[in-house]
Amino acid sequence: xxxxxxxxxxxxxxxxxxxxxxxxxxxxxxxxxxxxxxxxxxxxxxxxxxxxxxxxxxxxxxxxxxxxxxxxxxxxxxxxxxxxxxxxxxxxxxxxxxxxxxxxxxxxxxxxxxxxxxxxxxxxxxxxxxxxxxxxxxxxxxxxxxxxxxxxxxxxxxxxxxxxxxxxxxxxxxxxxxxxxxxxxxxxxxxxxxxxxxxxxxxxxxxxxxxxxxxxxxxxxxxxxxxxxxxxxxxxxxxxxxxxxxxxxxxxxxxxxxxxxxxxxxxxxxxxxxxxxxxxxxxxxxxxxxxxxxxxxxxxxxxxxxxxxxxxxxxxxxxxxxxxxxxxxxxxxxxxxxxxxxxxxxxxxxxxxxxxxxxxxxxxxxxxxxxxxxxxxxxxxxxxxxxxxxxxxxxxxxxxxxxxxxxxxxxxxxxxxxxxxxxxxxxxxxxxxxxxxxxxxxxxxxxxxxxxxxxxxxxxxxxxxxxxxxxxxxxxxxxxxxxxxxxxxxxxxxxxxxxxxxxxxxxxxxxxxxxxxxxxxxxxxxxxxxxxxxxxxxxxxxx
Length: 543
Description:
This protein is of the alpha+beta class. Among the domains are: 19-46 and 247-443, Glycoside hydrolase 144 (GH144) (Glycosyltransferase); 461-542, Immunoglobulin-like, CATH 2.60.40. Helices cover 38% and strands 17% of the residues. It has helices spanning 2-56, 78-94, 99-115, 146-162, 168-182, 220-228, 240-243, 291-309, 351-355, 362-375, 377-380, 403-417, 420-425, 429-437, and strands spanning 75-77, 127-129, 135-136, 144-145, 190-191, 194-195, 198-199, 249-254, 257-261, 326-327, 335-336, 381-382, 385-386, 390-391, 396-397, 461-463, 472-478, 482-490, 496-505, 508-514, 523-531, 534-542. A five-stranded mixed sheet has the order 16-22-21-18-19, with no helix packed on it. Helix 1 packs across helix 12 (403-417), helix 2 (78-94) packs parallel to helix 4 and helix 3 packs parallel to helix 5 (168-182). The protein is globular, with a radius of gyration of 25 Å. Mean pLDDT is 94; it is low at 1-7.
């Protein structure tokens, strides 16, 4: 009798073990299926967003329409065209189109920009006609637009770095880009130790939209180019207007995240995107901030506000999130340039906000991407991916695409995938000269995981497998040549999972990659970097 009881208990125990094992295996299989679906959604979104620039490029100029409205495709956005140049380079890099096709499109663009498009001392207006190159008035502007031109020039310089082969066509393209770039006269916009945003030839001083570029804005792009210009650049002292302007130095904490520089609660997310479409924030630190961590904090503030602190009527959550400049319902004005956490929020989500911060917060961005595709596809998805915006409060979906927003999506998704433009920018000497003048240098890291930022609610760094690598990845640093190993320690038990056995690394920044193995989504643990007797710990949550 006693033997039967023991066997019965043993059998029940074994059954529970087998049930637990089966449950874990089933969960892991479902998670793998979920991940493979995410990869397909990611690729489809990236490719469709690229198609906006490839298919809608103007037949005469090759340049990018400001928006997708059928009766307005002749309205070429100069800044959108700069983003478009980078976007079609992504197409060549991904093999969606050929290098030769992109090269031919680029030569069409540079010919039009040189011989047809209106310029003022080398600076283009905000909008031009795609067939004639004539100025189109925009928001009271009737002259040169420095920021839009800088976005264009940055795109051209990325193309000059990308098309580096010694062939007749690529040599020609590089020469034509250099000619356009060197014709830009930034000194015409230098004023009071700063830059004018736009220059009017009809309006008087300080009228219309003639604003000085001061404070933390996307105009960092303009200052980098204006300071790095080989012949018509501004004085080093004129950078003072930017860093001494309103909303540059901040230093306050929002939802547990400190913003060294920038608007209260960060403002629209394009401020964490536009300057870094080309410039590598991982390698940029000055007396004010480390731009990589600043961009992560900005992104997490935006996500935390949407998931926890926004007005309930907006119906945001951890998946419906992302505030940036976008189209809005007509009753809300039709466009909101300063959408962000707080009083400027009108209850409108812009997909480009969350998708354009994939390099900083891939887990949160993937939550949004999956949600947009699976829960809003009927209203939000079209032939060029996700349309510009939606509002759950008003049951409203945008009817159009905006070139600037599409561009940020394509480019930043690529920087997440490969760091393509962050590496190309290091091949542009003018940019390196400018960063030196701005006091921006490579950061001085400490041993460990210096690029990681802990998400406050989970008290961990949330890791999501990279869609191309299909692995978790995390940067680590050693200040000297060292033998290093890594293991994952459970927070609930003393179990250890070896991630990487001992290996020699040279001093510098490296990337740790490891497989999912049998790790269940949501698993929390401590990632340990072992250097001799020293162990450096980082709390992580794996999805």
